[in-house]
């Protein structure tokens, strides 16, 4: 007969296993904690140490800009042609009207001559028509004057013979003949005046049309004559010639840009800024520029709309600029202020930021440096504002932390 085997009691074994696990976990935590707080010795001469100071601080950024002219005018060829003669070169200072280049175009010259001839012929026809109309007007006036003269004579004869007829001095036939002549002249005068008035209105309309046509033809003639003047390219304004590189015999097409005339004074600066700052940048902000050892003040006068390749454009003007010499395209470094001056704790900028993101820093105390949490506020080209975590007079390591960023303590030797 089989014997029933009772299961063994394993609770002691289970307790032993659990205790082992707890022990190992505790040892692991201690090892981790010891590793996290371990220190490393470094050469103090291989790191940059700076002092926390309280000073006047302005938030700002450093940007690069280029000098642009205050005004520039593009030179575009109004007519095509070949370069016949060059009178100026890039860099020359020009006065308005100075000749820069003379082009030649024989086909255009021939077309202009033919068009001039046609216009002059049309003008001549219009003027001849106007002369004929004026002659007709004069002829009608002469006819009316002649009738008035004859009527005046006939009227006196009529009045005299009328009295003589009443007295029986002259025959009725003679009186009737004079009376008819007088009546005829009066009617003729009325007809001539009526015709003259009608013709005068028509002539006035025609002459007005002719005058308008002559004006158009004259303007066309002037425009045609000016076409050849366009082959002579002159300076449209006072300024310096740039981007001009034509040579004798070179072909120039209509509308082709051949150069620029610009006036650099007073100069402006155009720059691009990272779009991260687009909401912080407004017109009216001030900045500083160093040029030839001089500190020059600038003001942001224009913010262009839109973003291209992660940047937006702005424009600056100089304030109280005196005796400054710039050239077109000159590169300048601008320190742009984004806030009003204030008193703040600051530390110099350093490469530590790339390792810590501004969350912590090593604070030096004698021969050691301890990791310390900090809060960084605004910044400019030279300094970080410290909002918390440090006090004035403390020293901090601001150089690169690549070799010891995982340590809590540094021993300086």
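Sequence proposed for the structure above (413 residues):
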């Amino acid at each position: 007969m089989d014997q029933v085997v009772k299961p063994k009691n394993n609770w002691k074994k289970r307790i032993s296993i659990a205790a082992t696990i707890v022990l190992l976990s505790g040892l692991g935590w201690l090892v981790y904690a010891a590793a996290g707080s371990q220190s490393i010795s470094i050469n103090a001469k291989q790191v940059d140490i700076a002092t926390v100071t309280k000073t006047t601080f302005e938030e700002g950024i450093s940007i690069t800009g280029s000098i642009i002219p205050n005004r520039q005018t593009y030179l575009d060829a109004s007519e095509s042609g070949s370069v016949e003669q060059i009178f100026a070169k890039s860099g020359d200072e020009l006065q308005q009207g100075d000749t820069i280049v003379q082009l030649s175009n024989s086909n255009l010259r021939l077309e202009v001559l033919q068009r001039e001839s046609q216009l002059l012929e049309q003008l001549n026809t219009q003027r001849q028509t106007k002369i004929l109309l004026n002659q007709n007007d004069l002829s009608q006036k002469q006819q009316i004057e002649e009738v008035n003269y004859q009527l005046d004579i006939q009227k006196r004869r009529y009045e005299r013979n009328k009295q003589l007829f009443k007295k029986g001095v002259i025959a009725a036939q003679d009186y009737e003949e004079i009376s008819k002549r007088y009546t005829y002249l009066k009617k003729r005068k009325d007809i001539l005046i009526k015709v003259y008035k009608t013709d005068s209105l028509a002539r006035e309309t025609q002459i007005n049309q002719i005058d308008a046509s002559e004006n158009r033809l004259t303007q066309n003639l002037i425009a045609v004559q000016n076409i050849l003047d366009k082959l002579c390219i002159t300076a449209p304004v006072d300024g310096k010639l740039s981007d001009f590189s034509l040579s004798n015999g070179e072909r120039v097409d209509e509308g082709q840009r051949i150069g620029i005339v610009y006036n650099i004074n007073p100069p402006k600066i155009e720059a691009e800024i990272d779009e991260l700052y687009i909401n912080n940048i407004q017109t009216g902000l001030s900045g500083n520029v160093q040029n030839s050892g001089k500190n020059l003040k600038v003001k942001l006068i224009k913010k262009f709309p839109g973003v291209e390749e992660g940047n937006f454009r702005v424009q600056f003007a100089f304030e109280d600029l005196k005796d400054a010499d710039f050239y077109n395209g000159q590169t300048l470094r601008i320190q742009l202020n984004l806030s009003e001056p204030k008193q703040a704790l600051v530390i110099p900028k350093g490469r530590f930021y790339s390792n810590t993101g501004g969350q912590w820093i090593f604070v030096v105390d004698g021969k050691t440096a301890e990791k310390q949490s900090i809060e960084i506020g605004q910044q400019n080209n030279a300094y970080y504002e410290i909002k918390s975590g440090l006090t004035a007079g403390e020293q901090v390591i601001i150089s690169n932390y690549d070799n010891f960023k995982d340590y809590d303590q540094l021993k300086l030797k």
